[in-house]
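Duplicate of #3305? Posting structure anyway:
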């Protein structure tokens, strides 16, 4: 007799919206959708409503409806599930809609899918990232007014499909041995219940697979140093929401730059994503003493040592019309200058810039061996910009430059890749020297459809330390470029790629590798490419992350991918998708954060030992962890 592993039974469910992240009442979700997740719906931070509702249909009762023309899914189970059956009744309503069953779901880009398509087909797919392999299909004259009973049974290498109670496919495929189960749709559809069942033997086998996997993971993780608490810093009783450990303390010692979340955005973005608090900024030492704090209409506070004395000052935009430098000693304004005016491509001519996200990027443009100058970008509506302005530490304009298409996005990158002692600047797929002269632009990328490059990295990442540039250009892919010429070396497509980092993530191979994170539509999918730009691994540690920074944890040249976006992903990962260090951190009030939230982790060398520490800050205190001896 089969056991019910998971189900959606809406017999007595009320109608209305579900999975509305702005609604604190979760009684409907807890009762009818326990242990079900929406892997394709953005994190609640983005305030996007689920496309699903519960509605009543005459003669049927309460049904689950996707009311918008989007791709959506619900999944349940775990990666240890292997042999089971999924049954549901689907009705495709939209003219181009599709609806069906997911099985052995590995990531949101790797799974088996049985689907009814309004293009008059019933199809069984195996999806492998961008490749959709048809395992079986048949013509089906789809009636959008009726339901179709679908069944998909996976057992070993066999996949058996039933339509309205009659078996129609029996195929074999060995690519995905285990994975989650669920439902999937594209466009407006309805589901009348979902039931996932498995035999008694499958339940026991699943427990055995889970125990064996956990044993392998524990043995693998035993070779890596776990974290230990290096320091626990008190914070002053001064209202703030965001803080960073920076060199703002007396004589350039560590201290905290503190401010409210509304200071992280432009006025327009603050109204959308902020907390509605008065902008304020302050500095404390690591003993919990407030050095100073002010309510001041300053946005984008950023710590940078503009005068080279070893203690960072605070750069910001005051009253949305000028940039200022605040003393980290007492908060007084020690320098100010007008903001540059917008270029013809962004805003009105003659108006000052109005960036929506952090505009400051420190750089060593003078060859002094420290990042004392900075570059400003004007990133609007999260769609990037086209003009750059470089300033020295005294707020004197050094030069202005413009990029073509695609525009730069939410990050710039600086690195001295030619060995002259001055850093070059990568803005989108355009490289500038320290004087603002264009060295190259990637002409092939001009043909891309996506209009901006979200994140970029610049460094000596080649197989033999050659200069490389790389960046994520949304649905057009992740590009690895020759740092000298801008020519494309490799391109990887994995949905809307958004984040990237570089490090030695493949520990059995020399050289630097690339971690690429996918966002809109496939949150949490990570790809690791080797030093040549060839794909090695794709996996999905959670449904939130878009990757993480490299961490020098062991001091032996190996790097680790730090994920802190959720509790399930919380740890240090290698490039093969394995958790090397499952961070315990028992002192932390919470594990996993996203957006401008408490407890978001930073990576920095706090004790100057050549290895990185992990810093987690909260309004009340901060925690610093390092590798155990």
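Output from current build:
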């Amino acid at each position: 007799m089969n056991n019910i592993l998971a189900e959606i039974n809406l017999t007595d469910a009320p109608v209305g919206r579900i999975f509305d992240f702005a609604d604190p009442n979760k009684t409907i979700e807890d009762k009818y959708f326990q242990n079900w997740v929406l892997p394709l719906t953005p994190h609640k931070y983005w305030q996007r409503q689920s496309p699903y509702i519960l509605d009543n249909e005459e003669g049927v009762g309460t049904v689950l409806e996707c009311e918008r023309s989007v791709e959506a899914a619900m999944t349940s189970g775990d990666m240890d599930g292997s042999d089971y059956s999924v049954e549901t009744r689907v009705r495709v309503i939209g003219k181009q809609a599709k609806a069906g069953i997911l099985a052995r779901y590995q990531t949101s880009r790797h799974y088996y899918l049985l689907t009814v398509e309004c293009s008059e087909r019933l199809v069984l797919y195996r999806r492998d990232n961008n490749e959709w392999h048809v395992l079986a299909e048949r013509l089906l004259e789809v009636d959008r007014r009726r339901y179709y009973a679908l069944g998909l049974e996976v057992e070993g290498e066999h996949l058996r499909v039933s339509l309205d109670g009659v078996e129609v496919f029996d195929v074999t495929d060995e690519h995905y041995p285990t994975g989650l189960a669920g439902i999937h749709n594209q466009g407006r559809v309805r589901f009348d219940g979902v039931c996932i069942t498995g035999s008694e033997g499958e339940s026991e086998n699943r427990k055995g697979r889970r125990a064996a996997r956990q044993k392998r993971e524990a043995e693998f993780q035993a070779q890596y140093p776990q974290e230990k608490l290096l320091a626990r810093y008190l914070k002053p009783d001064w209202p703030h929401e965001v803080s960073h450990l920076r060199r703002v303390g007396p004589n350039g010692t560590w201290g905290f730059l503190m401010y409210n979340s509304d200071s992280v955005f432009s006025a327009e973005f603050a109204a959308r994503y902020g907390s509605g608090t008065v902008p304020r900024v302050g500095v404390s030492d690591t003993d919990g003493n407030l050095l100073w704090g002010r309510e001041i209409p300053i946005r984008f506070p950023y710590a940078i040592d503009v005068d080279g004395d070893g203690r960072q000052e605070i750069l910001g935009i005051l009253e949305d019309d000028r940039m200022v430098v605040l003393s980290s000693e007492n908060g007084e304004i020690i320098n100010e200058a007008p903001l540059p005016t917008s270029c013809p491509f962004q805003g009105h001519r003659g108006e000052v810039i109005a960036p929506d996200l952090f505009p400051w990027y420190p750089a060593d443009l003078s060859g002094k061996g420290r990042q004392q100058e900075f570059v400003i970008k004007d990133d609007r509506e999260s769609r990037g910009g086209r003009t750059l302005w470089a300033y020295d530490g005294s707020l004197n304009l050094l030069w202005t430059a413009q990029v073509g298409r695609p525009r730069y996005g939410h990050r710039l990158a600086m690195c001295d890749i030619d060995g002259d002692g001055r850093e070059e600047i990568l803005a989108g797929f355009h490289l500038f020297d320290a004087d603002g002269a264009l060295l190259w632009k990637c002409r092939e990328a001009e043909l891309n459809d996506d209009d901006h490059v979200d994140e970029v990295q610049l460094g000596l990442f080649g197989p033999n330390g050659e200069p490389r540039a790389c960046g994520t250009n949304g649905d057009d892919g992740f590009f690895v470029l020759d740092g000298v010429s801008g020519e494309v070396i490799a391109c990887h497509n994995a949905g809307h790629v958004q984040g990237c980092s570089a490090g030695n993530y493949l520990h059995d191979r020399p050289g630097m590798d690339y971690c690429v994170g996918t966002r809109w539509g496939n949150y949490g999918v990570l790809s690791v490419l080797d030093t040549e730009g060839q794909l090695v691994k794709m996996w999905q540690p959670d449904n939130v992350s878009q990757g993480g920074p490299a961490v020098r944890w062991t001091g032996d040249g190996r790097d680790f991918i730090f994920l802190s976006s959720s509790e399930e992903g919380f740890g240090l990962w290698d490039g093969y998708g394995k958790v090397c260090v499952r961070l315990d951190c028992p002192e932390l009030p919470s594990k996993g954060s996203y957006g401008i939230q408490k407890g978001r982790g930073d990576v920095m060398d706090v004790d100057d030992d050549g290895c990185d520490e992990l810093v987690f800050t909260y309004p009340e205190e901060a925690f610093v962890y390092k590798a155990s001896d």
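Confirmed duplicate; merging threads. The mean pLDDT is 93. The chain has three helices and 49 strands.
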